[in-house]
Design a protein that fits this description.
It is a single chain. This protein has 166 residues and is α+β, with helices and mostly antiparallel strands. The chain is 32% helix and 34% strand. The protein has four helices and eight strands, in the order βααββββαβββα. The protein has helices at residues 18-36, 42-60, 107-111, 149-158, and strands at residues 5-11, 62-69, 72-79, 83-91, 95-100, 115-119, 129-135, 139-145. The protein has a four-stranded antiparallel sheet.
Length: 166
Amino acid sequence: MAESYIECLVKKQAPLWGRPALWSLYALGGIFLGLGLINPIGLPVALLCFGLTFFVRGASEVEFEYLYLDKELEVDKIVAKSRRKRQAVYPLAKVEMLAPASSPRLAGLHQRGVRVRDFSAGEAGAPVYGMWVRDGEAGECLALLSLSPALVERLRLDVPRKVYLD
């Protein structure tokens, strides 16, 4: 059987507070840096402001990478284009269903209290798919993913009874 490898990178939409908060911290850091030349209390406050920009920038620049290899879908989170962390690994054997997030097939899962993990782009017009995974140890989970059409087609070819395109 042939191996299949598909990689998809999705940039998460930045929150509305990200840019203003970042520029505000830069401005405050510059002001306190200037005040630090006059008053010694300004330097630590300026360093604090510049240190907080590291965290704000990381929270506002997030990408998700979906890697499909040998019937496993891996989801990685990339923060500020420099730090990568594995979020989840979904073997297709444990996937119960993949359908568009707005599909009525997935509607009953929210009422049952299934844990939802959002790995989607968060954009209004982007297609979002829900992947219902049932794992014996971790329980049930619904992963929201912004998959590319090529990746959805590959999943449909590998497990046709679990992928719905309605």
